[in-house]
Amino acid sequence: MSSTSSLPEDRIRAEVQSARLDATSDANWQSFMVRFDTEFPRLQSLFHRIYGPGADGELLQVVLDAAASWQDRPADLKALDASRAMAPDWFQSNRMLGGVCYVDLYAGNLAGMRERIPYFRELGLTYLHLMPLFLAPAANSDGGYAVSSYRDVDPSLGTMDELAELARELREDGIALVVDFIFNHTSDEHDWAKRAVAGDPEYQDFYLIYPDRQVPDAYEQTVREIFPDDHPGSFVQLDDGRWVWATFHSFQWDLNYRNPRVFRAMAGEMLYLANQGVDIIRMDAVAFIWKQLGTSCESLPEAHLLLQAFNAVYRLAAPSLLFKSEAIVHPDEVVQYIDPGECQLSYNPLQMALIWNSLATRDASLLAQALERRHAIPDGTSWVNYVRSHDDIGWTFSDEDAAELGINGHDHRRFLNAFFVNRFPDSFARGVPFQDNPRTGDCRISGTTASLAGLEAAREAAEDDGAAVARILLAHSIILSTGGIPLLYLGDEVGQLNDYSYLGDPARAGDSRWVGRPGYPADRYEARHTATTNAGAIFAGFSRLIEVRKQTPEFAGGQLVAFITNNPHVLGYQRPGLLDGEESTVVVLVNVADTPQDVTAQTLSGLPPMARELISGDSTLLHTGVTLEPHGVRWFRV
To answer: What is the pTM for the complete model shown?
Structure first.
């Protein structure tokens, strides 16, 4: 906590005015001061709620840093700020399509990523998320999430100048760049961590370091273990006998956000990345950033205040930047982070989990319930919908929601775990357990979409792979049509399979999540235009769905209305919107079963007698009912 006394706003404003550089034009400076007048009162109020009025000295430095960052911001990024201010809903367009990958696995390095841009144009990407690519320890990187420097790219991938150049080229092709901002912790090799351990007075309070076990023991009465296999509890002991907070891994040390200098330092790192051309920052592990004795130290009110304060800072100096939250918590907590003044984007882990649940059970009831009850979020925000990510799959549905459908949440999770790791009779899935406990049935699931959907099993048995291809397309049809930004794990659009080579790498063998992070599937990409291959069938299906989505303005935004199909195997929902200025609705029907399913004439009686089916382009009679083939998908414009 800073000891500086409260500063009057007029003095702060005068200090900010004095920070103008001679080279800054009147128009550029005026635009900053207009935003200052709008955002500073909010930022100061938030700062006072978090740190008290005595932290105004640090607040002034934060604002001066923002003024300097704005004046350093390249002209083309300032132009982008202005254009997006005129279209603030740009990320809610039906033309948005996201892709995510590891730079080294997908392209070797940043130069290789630039060579992939023509393919990104072919696919239709408008959003590219590069997994952690900053400097991290070679041995203990947690897949890049143990950051040693936010301003240096991993040398094996390239340089920060190359990242900025890639961002510029992507921007010219209409593709927004997304990177991870490891918000809760740094590597123990970060310069801040080294200085803190050495007793540097500037940095010793950047982390939560205690001389003995008294305080750690008190916290651990109420804080859960995240990765007990790495270290029990939430603290690790330093060589000198002290204890440092490490929520996740022993080499990832939690930052001490009770220190306003940590806020200032992290705001500076964020604005630096924004000025390299980053459009969207994924805020990693946001639920854990505030610690309070006697609580779980997860999703506390101060965590939200901090995100709102960071939001105000970037609106000063990089106003087109967006935040994306990553909070794999109870569905009621996920939505707490989604707000125009906090995180405009959020992963949708509930929808992801329930897509897989629907495929395993051949029953869409839980997913239909979630879309009706939990899909709506505030205006000016958007879900990021995905079928799977780089990480494991956890079954994040609400036990209370499941109970309403007669489902015991604990028992059902055990079934899903068994099904997706092929421990259930006739399972089509070939997932790999992560943090497996065979005694309790607890685990999470790793694997690629194709292996989880049955393509690997079909290959093993030398059987027809049509059902697996259909499941892959069905799952992605949902993320493409429910509203939000659909996010593909690149390579899944050609059916890449699990990569078991990680077992031969001592640094990765203990982490089964690497099975779902295969290298660039060159052979499958080469076959993407060959219709007789499963890679070709999957890519053709993807391409058709993506093209239809682009031509369907009803799929913009996030408004979704339930559609009761009266058949538990058929998911239904409506996407109302505008078509050529007129009200229009697309009704979506998805058969998650392995057998044909009917939606009766009576169920469809409230719709017009005929509708155009957008994927096939055919006109369809609705007044006689509709039969969907196994894993069939229909997008009816009514």
So the answer is: 0.95
